[in-house]
């Protein structure tokens, strides 16, 4: 499993427990304080969790992280900020020998399309499930839209399922997923994307 935007490890710890001793979780987090807490909270899992300080993006190199001093879960890529290492999911998977991949969780404050574009080969070949936070405001801040996320993943052969209190919805096409987002009564909505 891959936890993109791992923050302090809330989901990483659960993923590590689910995968068991033979599994592995890559946890990607760029912000220094969050990253140190992530390593501390996942240390008991040993080699089952590999914490990577940086961002997942559509290209490798360096990007800038805008750090929100008030909200530790609202850091995002921007034109200015702290320089961080950028990785692609495709590159990280290739470096690790293309092991089977069950799930990618993406919560990156509007940078979701860059993560998806940097994982396109992995999504085509390994077909993991995705859990993606879709936040229209954050996407717009990055120059993108929720419709682009739904359409990009549909083009890669994925169907959207809205996550709710009682599980996830039936499969939706991009137009239905966008309608669900607009009527959810919240600023954002989590979706499960499954290969079709």
Annotation, overall tally of beta strands:
12
CATH homology superfamily: Vaccinia Virus protein VP39
Question: Would you state the CATH class?
Answer: Alpha Beta
Q: Separation of termini?
A: 20 Å
Major sheet size, sense and barrel closure: 8 strands, mixed
Low-confidence stretches: none
The figure for the number of domains is 1
Shape, per Cα inertia axes: globular
What does this structure look like?
- The protein has about 200 residues and is α/β, with parallel strands linked by helices.
- The chain has one domain (about 1-195): 3-Layer(aba) Sandwich (Rossmann fold).
- Helix content is about 35%, strand content about 30%.
- It has helices at about 10-20, 30-40, 90-95, 110-115, 120-125, 135-140, 145-155, 175-180, and strands at about 1-5, 25-30, 50-55, 55, 60-65, 75-80, 80-85, 105, 130-135, 160-165, 165-170, 190-195.
- The strands form two sheets. Strands 3-2-1-8-9-12-10-11 form an eight-stranded mixed β-sheet, sandwiched between helices. The chain has a four-stranded mixed β-sheet with strand order 4-7-5-6.
- Helix 7 (about 145-155) packs antiparallel against helix 8.
């Amino acid at each position: 499993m891959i936890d993109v935007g791992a923050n302090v490890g809330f989901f990483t710890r659960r993923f590590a427990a689910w995968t068991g001793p033979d599994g592995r979780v890559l946890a990607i987090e760029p912000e220094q304080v969050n990253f140190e807490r992530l390593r501390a909270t996942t240390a008991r899992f040993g080699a089952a969790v590999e914490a990577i300080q940086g961002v997942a993006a559509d290209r490798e190199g360096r990007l800038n992280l805008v750090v929100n001093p008030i909200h530790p879960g609202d850091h995002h890529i921007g034109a200015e900020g702290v320089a961080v290492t950028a990785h692609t999911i495709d590159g990280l998977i290739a470096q690790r020998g293309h092991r089977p991949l069950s799930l990618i969780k993406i919560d990156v404050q509007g940078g979701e399309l860059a993560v998806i574009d940097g994982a396109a080969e992995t999504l085509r070949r390994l077909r993991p499930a995705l859990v993606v936070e879709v936040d229209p405001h954050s996407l717009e801040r990055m120059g993108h839209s929720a419709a682009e996320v739904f359409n990009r993943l549909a083009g890669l052969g994925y169907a959207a399922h809205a996550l709710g209190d009682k599980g996830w919805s039936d499969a939706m096409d991009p137009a239905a997923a966008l309608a669900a987002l607009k009527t959810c009564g919240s600023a954002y909505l989590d979706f499960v994307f499954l290969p079709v």
